[in-house]
Amino acid sequence: MKKISFLFILVILSISFAQALDIEPNRWVDFTGKLGNSDVQLSIYRFSNGTLKGNYCYKKFEKRIPLTGKISGDLIELTEIVNGRVSGIFTGKVFTDDKDRFEGRWTNSDKTKSYNLKLTLSSIVAGSESHRYGSLATDSEVENFMKKTKDAILKNDHQWIISHIKYPINVTLNHKRIAIKSQKQMSVNFNQIFHAEFKRKIKDACTCNMFTNYRGTMLGAGEIWIDDYDFKLKPKNLLLIKAIIN
Hints:
By secondary structure, the protein is an alpha+beta fold. It has 6 helices and 14 strands.
């Protein structure tokens, strides 16, 4: 009986790993990794007919580059469009034998340059192709707000940050989680909350194609979360910072 149970577990595990990365329709599938020597983030959305749309960005620029393509089995081909013209082609394969990953090559349109592509799966997000984030705001509004949040933290723009927070908000001070209940209290403790190590993490985080769920949208590994608030009362403050994990 023990042998049968053990074999059953092995079969279940093998099936789970074999199906670890199934790029299903109506999902955003996000990868991070290297294009040549550059850090990139790439997201694709699959339609029911197997066609793909998406984008990728160089993390240091945080600017989306549109992609269209197709998937056949574990083979993916993506065409890069810049200013209405084809500027490059991604060709690669999805692997699930180790980490879920997408690896292949990028080649420019005249085939004079080619770089290795090595990406690993970072997240899968439910949503529509035109509306990734579960928010009343548009995708561009969500990403622009997070970009402003990131810039304000790095520039020590106290006033912008404290005026775009939903209070009360929990933060870590002196190794303890406490509730910050007002803008004044946030201002007094600003430098302790947004310390150097926290800023380093924020600087390295990309504001393109962020993870999102019913709780809101997060930056990086969850250092900052934002969500909709007070839309009817304050349309200009549709989005606010709801969590700081410092």
